[in-house]
Recover the amino acids of this structure.
């Protein structure tokens, strides 16, 4: 029987999320969550719950994702307050 290769000691989830690729992914998720909250606070009360997420592209374009096409259309009318031409509105149905 051959000897078992040495195993690394287990690491906590917090240490995995604190650095490397997983850390970068966790930081991006926090950034998007915070940006979504900030944008949601600027929206009319009836529109805010329909914002699924907000993010930015590497070129600085704001990308807003709504839960239905009707809310995406309404969001396009409000796009001026978020930078006008540099806003992209997408639809991601929930459920």
């Amino acid at each position: 029987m051959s000897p078992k290769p040495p195993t690394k000691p287990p690491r906590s989830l917090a240490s995995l999320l604190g650095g490397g690729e997983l850390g970068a992914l966790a930081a991006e998720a926090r950034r998007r969550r915070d940006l979504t909250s900030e944008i949601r606070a600027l929206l009319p009360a009836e529109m805010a719950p329909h914002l699924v997420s907000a993010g930015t592209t590497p070129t600085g374009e704001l990308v807003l994702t709504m839960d239905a096409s009707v809310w995406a259309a309404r969001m396009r009318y409000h796009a001026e307050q978020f930078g006008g031409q540099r806003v992209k509105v997408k639809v991601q149905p929930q459920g």
